[in-house]
Amino acid sequence: MPTKKEVINIISNIGLWDKKSIDAALEEQEATGNSLKEVFQNRGMLPFGEVSPSFYFQLGIVQKELPPREIPADLLTVIPPKIARNHRIVPWDRREDGRFILVSDDPLNILAADYFKKIIGMEGIKEVEVMITFPSEMDQLLEKYYGKETMEDLTQMLQEASSATIDLELPEAEVEGEDEETIALQAPVVKICNLIFVEALRRRASDIHLEPLEKKFRVRFRIDGVLYEVVSPPKRIEKAVIARIKLMAKMDLAEKRLPQDGRIMLDIGGRPIDFRVSSLPGIYGESMVLRILDKTSMLKGLEELGFLPDDFERWKELLKYSAGLILVTGPTGSGKTTTLYAALNALNTMDRKLMTVEEPVEYQIPGINQTPVNTEIGLTFASVLRSFLRQSPDIILVGEIRDFETADIAVRAALTGHLVFSTLHTNDAPGAITRLIDMGVPPFLIASSVQGVMAQRLVRVLCPYCKEKIEPDEEMKRKLRVQEGEELNVCIPKGCNEC
Fold first, then answer.
1. Please, what's the b/e burial string for 81-110 (b: 16 or more CB within 10 A of its CB; e: otherwise)?
2. pLDDT in tens, 397-410
3. Of the ranges 25-34, 133-142, 266-275, 451-460, which one carries the lowest mean pLDDT score?
4. Total domain count for the chain?
5. In the predicted model, what is the mean pLDDT of residues 90-116?
6. Is residue 317 a part of any domain in this protein?
7. Which structural domain, as residue segments, surrounds residue 374?
8. Structural domain includes residue 477
9. Is 289 exposed, middle or buried (0-12, 13-18, 19+ CB in 10 A)?
10. Which of 45, 48, 116, 129 is buried most, with the most CB atoms less than 10 Å from its CB?
11. pLDDT tens figures, 449-485
12. Helix or strand or coil: residue 278?
């Protein structure tokens, strides 16, 4: 990789930029701390806003595919996260000959080697070299090693909010209408809410819980079915954050005595994200839960669902039926919808018509007619299902069977040549039959229509990158019913940058 001096000489010789312009840009970059690319853009030195492909060729720069490597923690600490993300650089290696290697996808960073040397500030560093890689690899490195930037930003914002420098507190007297709306639109409140949204997505959370307690305001994320407390914002900003969420969800700001439902649609990082908002009054204030629906999420294949071999074969046999009712049961958040979507995806062929009625539509599948329930206008599961039967579908998915009317239509659809999938909230598979009878469906119709019921739970798995194998003790072997001489592979969690 060429050095800074070699790059400046080549640039001057080919007449791309003169040395005086480069020196002035470098001085501005050191003074402002902005990335060199940003400085060049502001000075009009990049007419197309980007470094042209010919620039790599003229300078003899080759983009390298990085070998697998775990970067030591002591190297990562020399570059602050904000600088790493702003300049798109990551420390890579420190050589015995005094060279410090950085990785970047921006060739202009070669010119900023002296600036980075000052930032690193380590003794014995004679020279800083910048190795150029592909943007996709750089994105992965930044996310892996500096992905907690959002959380740091959020923590910093909350520290500022709890100080006297930012006034986010609502007046002691109840604030109604325009005053509360004005506070909800304050820049610090907006930024705090946005950072919470982004951090939830980065952590793959399914729900955001905002909970006013007696002496604090708690924010928790539900990740893989388990709630984790992420931050505790100061109690004084609680009403401002709740008001901001209610405003975004088009809920009544003045109504604090009754539960409310709303919806927020945002574009985050080019991904359309749907938040379903529910508020509930409590003794310490309104608590809120935001269900995150990422409609662009990748659908899982049947083989990715974690079936045991025998169960997998039974499930595939159920999917071969041309008619009947197939039910999936389990608690909220156990992955019932994921399982049914995987089944629909496997059955989605050109010779079949698939229709779904859901509340809400969680994933969008090409080639399937999906209808969201809207109870405010009378569009219920039962009414949509009744209309489906006039649309000549082959396969129907009903998001959930909640009442006799929906259950009755689903059963009769299954008896008239349709394959119907749905979910029920029961603890086990036999409980589904009892639940249908309890709703009022005659047992003889259940016997004729139900082809199968599957109960499931969400099982968290260990990180494949850092799980640690251990030798099980006798107590563990007894609990796992290990036979004498049987080999047992047991691992425990450890924790790494990946997880």
1. bebbbebbbbbbebeeeeebbbbbbbbbbb
2. 998 998 999 999 99
3. 25-34
4. 3
5. 82
6. yes
7. 309-455
8. no
9. middle
10. 116
11. 999 999 999 887 887 777 888 888 888 888 888 877 7
12. strand
